[in-house]
């Protein structure tokens, strides 16, 4: 280049993989969900792009899928009517009056105050689990007389000392407070948006929008809830030696509402301790399981724990209750397949994402 020619800026050399490692250099992209500039591996960026495209496609076709589902339900009802018309015995069976449910005089609270520790997919999975929970209570012969979904309170997951794992592929919201609406959290947004707010109309379900778990005993009048004392509140967690012998009328049983792939050890126990609540665990023991030993984690999904509790209200027998709530794969004596650790949390969201 001669002295009279202007200098042109040369493009920077692309980063090369580290010699001998085979590892591609990280890439910097604009996160398609948050709009933030993030750095991640090339593989993580591809996975994120595929996930966003999958979600967009699912959102674009949801009305068509729902129309197909309505048509299928209509066809099933038509077939049922034809069957009844041609089968007098079936008609007589359907005319048998249903047994009126006998509510059990305790209540269950799902603590949804861990929004700051979950990814969007995990929050969606939790929302699906709440749908299963509602179905179990609604169809039970001895349902809990009240089930409460409580939003964030003073103690968020991060306030308890837990931090979400560093990952550019996922985004985590800021910690909610007792002044944050349950409907602003990710689970609430899912139920309000994709599920069209159906949970507001669920019978036997109360939504505690503000104040979190603490408002049950601190400001029950403001939340229009039955008053209770802290002594009557029991936080269910596997991280304690105190085992429940039976469910008691008048007590409030709390289930930690989080899907975390077992990342946060002792999370619910630490929250219960910080709030000064009694902790107890379900009697998941070989003596109640016909001598069987669980071959997988004892960490259960929200709907599995609730199914066990409802099983006890119906049978007053922990062995029968545990058989109803625990999936068979928990007792598989063969080697656990890769990815089985996440199967319990994914099971609740695989089929009902559209109906929750």
Set out the fold topology.
Elements: E1 27-30, E2 37-40, H1 42-60, H2 62-86, H3 88-94, E3 104-111, H4 120-139, E4 144-150, H5 186-192, E5 205-208, H6 215-218, E6 233-236, E7 252-256, H7 267-275, E8 278-280, H8 302-315, H9 318-325, H10 343-347
Parallel strand pairs: 3-4, 3-7, 4-5, 6-7, 6-8
Antiparallel strand pairs: 1-2
Helix pairs in contact: 2-3, 4-5, 4-8, 8-9
Note down, in words, how this protein is organized.
Helix content is about 35%, strand content about 10%. With about 350 residues, it is α/β, with parallel strands linked by helices. The strands form two sheets. A six-stranded parallel β-sheet has the order 5-4-3-7-6-8, sandwiched between helices. Strands 1-2 form a two-stranded antiparallel sheet. Mean pLDDT is about 80; it is low at about 5-10 and about 335-355. It has two domains: about 25-60, no CATH class; about 105-345, Alpha/beta knot. Helix 4 links the parallel strand 3 and strand 4 (about 145-150). GO terms for molecular function: tRNA (guanosine(9)-N1)-methyltransferase activity; tRNA binding.
| CATH class annotation of the largest domain | Alpha Beta
CATH architecture of the largest domain: 3-Layer(aba) Sandwich
Question: Any idea what the radius of gyration is?
Answer: 25 Å
Strand elements, count: 8
Number of helices: 10
> What is the approximate shape?
globular
User: What is the domain tally?
Assistant: 2
CATH-assigned fold name of the largest domain:
Alpha/beta knot
The mean pLDDT is 79
- β-strand amount: 5-15%
The description of the largest β-sheet is:
6 strands, parallel
User: What is the string of SSEs from the N terminus onward?
Assistant: EEHHHEHEHEHEEHEHHH
Low-confidence stretches: 6-12, 333-356
Q: For the largest sheet, list the strands in their spatial order.
A: 5-4-3-7-6-8
Structural class: alpha/beta
Spatial separation of the terminal alpha carbons: 68 Å
Residues in helices, as a percent range: 25-40%
């Amino acid at each position: 280049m001669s002295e009279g020619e202007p200098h042109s800026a040369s493009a920077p050399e692309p980063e090369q993989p580290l010699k001998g490692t085979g590892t591609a250099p990280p890439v910097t992209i604009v996160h398609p969900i948050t709009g933030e500039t993030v750095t991640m591996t090339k593989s993580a960026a591809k996975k994120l792009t595929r996930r966003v495209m999958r979600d967009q496609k699912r959102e674009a076709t949801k009305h068509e899928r729902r129309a197909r589902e309505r048509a299928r339900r209509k066809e099933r009802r038509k077939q049922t009517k034809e069957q009844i018309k041609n089968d007098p015995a079936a008609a007589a069976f359907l005319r048998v009056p249903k047994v009126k449910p006998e509510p059990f005089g305790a209540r269950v609270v799902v603590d949804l105050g861990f929004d700051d520790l979950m990814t969007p997919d995990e929050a969606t999975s939790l929302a699906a689990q709440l749908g299963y929970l509602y179905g179990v209570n609604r169809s039970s012969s001895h349902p809990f007389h009240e089930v409460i979904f409580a939003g964030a309170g003073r103690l968020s997951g991060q306030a308890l000392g837990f931090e979400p794992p560093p990952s550019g592929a996922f985004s985590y919201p800021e910690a909610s407070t007792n002044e944050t609406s349950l409907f602003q959290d990710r689970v609430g947004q899912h139920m309000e948006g994709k599920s069209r707010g159906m949970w507001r109309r669920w019978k036997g379900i109360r939504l505690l929008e503000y104040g979190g778990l603490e408002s049950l005993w601190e400001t029950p009048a403001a939340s229009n809830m039955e008053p209770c004392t802290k002594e009557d509140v029991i936080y269910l967690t596997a991280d304690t030696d105190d085992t429940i012998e039976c469910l008691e009328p008048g007590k409030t049983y709390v289930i930690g509402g989080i899907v975390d792939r077992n990342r946060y050890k002792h999370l619910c126990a630490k929250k219960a301790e910080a709030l000064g609540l009694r902790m107890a665990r379900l009697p998941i023991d070989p003596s109640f399981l016909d001598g069987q030993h669980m071959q997988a984690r004892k960490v259960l999904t929200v709907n599995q724990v609730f199914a066990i509790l409802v099983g006890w209200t119906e049978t007053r027998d922990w062995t029968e209750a545990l058989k109803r709530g625990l999936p068979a794969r928990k007792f598989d004596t063969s080697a656990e397949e890769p990815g089985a650790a996440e199967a319990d949390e994914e099971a609740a969201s695989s089929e009902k994402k559209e109906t929750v």
